UniProtKB/TrEMBL annotation:
Basic residues composition bias: residue spans: 121-131
Annotated InterPro entries: TF_WRKY_IIc, WRKY_dom, WRKY_dom_sf, WRKY_plant
PROSITE patterns, alphabetized: WRKY (PS50811)
Location within or outside the cell: Nucleus
PANTHER family the UniProt entry points to: WRKY TRANSCRIPTION FACTOR 68, WRKY TRANSCRIPTION FACTOR PROTEIN 1-RELATED
Name of the featured protein: WRKY transcription factor
SUPFAM superfamilies: WRKY DNA-binding domain
Family as reported in the entry's similarity comment: Belongs to the WRKY group II-c family.
GO cellular component: nucleus
Compositional bias segments (type: Polar residues): 66-101
Source species: Nyssa sinensis
Domain WRKY: 144-209
Amino acid sequence: METKEGIKIEDSIRSSPFADHFPASNLAGMLDFEEKSSLGFMELLGIQEFNPSIFDIFQAPIPSKESSALTQTSPVPASSEISNPPMTPNCSSISSESSGAPNHEQTKAVDEEQEQQRTNKQLKPKKLSQKRQREPRFAFMTKSEVDHLEDGYRWRKYGQKAVKNSPFPRSYYRCTNATCNVKKRVERSFNDPSIVVTTYEGKHTHPSPVMPRANAAGLPPGSGCSADGAATFALPVQLTLPHRPQYFNNFSPLNCGYLSSTNPTASIHEGRFYTPTSAFLKDHGLLQDIVPSLMMRKEE
DNA sequence: CGCGTTTGACCCGCGC
DNA sequence: GCGCGGGTCAAACGCG
């Protein structure tokens, strides 16, 4: 499944708009860490964890199938992927779920016919089968006692499934904004129940409803949590939660460019994972200030 | 009443 | 072709 759609780590790094901010040595170190570490569940996400920058997903999508080469260490499907074709930035998402799928008016009409037929046949006519176009995905692991981490957006749960070989169910969330197509999956690690794996899919088409300080802190429109789709995440923030999650590894969106560019070893804090919250709090006190600082570093 | 969660059924893709 | 597992739908329900 998803293992097929992994991304090539190094290529992604090099193609990353943040590549300039990752000294080669740092990158190597990070890769080494990724390769050498035998982290159990970490391996499950090994590739994605090391996604060089979440911003790649939105700025320079990478073809998935062609570039998948990183799954050799992942016995279990990976949790994130970059699956958009390398078209122009922002090419995929805003046009809703059907975007990218080859469905035009004709197919739409056909679909409606089929749907009518289904309606006659079944009690519960379901949505028709267009080829599902996967949005870019991005996953990270968080050490937290709460499953659903606050990330600045409002989510509505639309499903929950038992995960094979895991006692923990996987929850499916969708952004409550009607125009927004972003989804996320939340599941706990089988190996370490204290770890929450969150997988985002898609792009927010609206500003974060609870990130008022983003703009105030100097976030230019389009550079961060804005509606124009340049970047789409509100980075997970834990401002109000009693639990302070620990973001794992280099893959955390929070250390894309920030920590890695300053201290390559920071991301392997405690040998396994890194706690960006505390690090950021040192300098900024609030995670909301981090996002702008991250962006501003890019500008430097 | 509106919004979010729960949950069983259904759909779809993939591997065998 | 079939079965399995992931993903989604939508009715029912709960809560403020």
